[in-house]
Amino acid sequence: MAEELKHILGEAAIRALAGEIKRVLPAFRSGPFVKACLTGLDDLALVARAWQIADALDAHLPRPFATAVDILLASLGPKSDAETGLSPLRYMPHLCFVQKYGIDDFETAMRAQYELTQWFSAEFSIRAYLTKYPEATYARLLDWTRDGNVHIRRLASEGTRPRLPWASRLPAFQADPRPVIAVLERLKDDPERYVQRSVANNLNDIGKDHPDLLVDLCRQWLVGAAPDRQWIVQHALRSLVKSGHAGALALLGVGARPDIRIADVTLAPGRVKVGDKLRFSFTIASTGKGPQDLLIDYAVHFVKANGDTRPKVFKLRRIELPPAAELPLTSTISFADMTTRKHYPGRHRIDLLVNGVAHPLTEFDVRSGR
Q1: pLDDT tens track for 70-128
Q2: Does residue 352 lie in a domain region?
Q3: Residue 116: how many CB atoms within 10 A of its CB?
């Protein structure tokens, strides 16, 4: 997958970008620009390609920065042509350019990110401005929570995430998340699921550093909450639920320690290779005297390159289990390599997590796919 992703910023995309700029700026030297972008491109991963193209943009677009931005924005064409799927990744170099070369021109950079985030999210580039201009950038993001465009509102949430994956952290917001919460308060009833998911993910980040604060905030948000806000709260608490945090579990109405037993564990296929899918099934039986509300997840302890293991938690089901009842459940684990996880041979383990309490399920070996 990583190999496929990097080709989104391949020769075709670079030549298309050169053509788009030349349409706006006939004097643009597209040949030297393309040559600079292509130099050593085959050896570069996706993000490194984006930075190389950004450097080429700086070398071949007119200065000052504001003039270059005007040309880039004009080259985008009508917003109705905005692309979907993975294709917006081809606009990553535009935002790398803004992040690196606009850092001394705040207003122009904000204008550029406001426009570009509607093509490819500016959640990564905006963090450079939160670092250098914390008060001014925060004020702008707070204002953008009221914007009519869903992409702008989402940027206000996603850009302030203290632990945004694949991005530099924001230590000031990790230490004191109150400014972030002020942003999220404005977005907690946003009508778009795209924004709601970002709000929930931001809250989930906050909970990793301030779990009790997150539970208290979610308790307040649930008062008179519409279904969409209830969804945000449930999604925001997912990491605390997986870790067995009593406050988070209680807030979602599930008991802290279930009365259950696990039986009839089966794996298919019996021999697993890297690249395969493993289907596992089991039966969960109640040993309690009354009905139990159960949140059921499972943790796969994947083997890393150095031979150690690290758990990855997956959601399974929420059920109400009557007394003496038994329920068969099943799920599938993929061992195909992804951009976010590479698989290695070795001894793996599955733990069942019921209301955050771990129940060892099974162990199995994964062999090399070669």
Answers
A1: 999 999 976 644 555 667 889 999 999 999 999 999 999 999 999 999 999 999 999 99
A2: yes
A3: 24
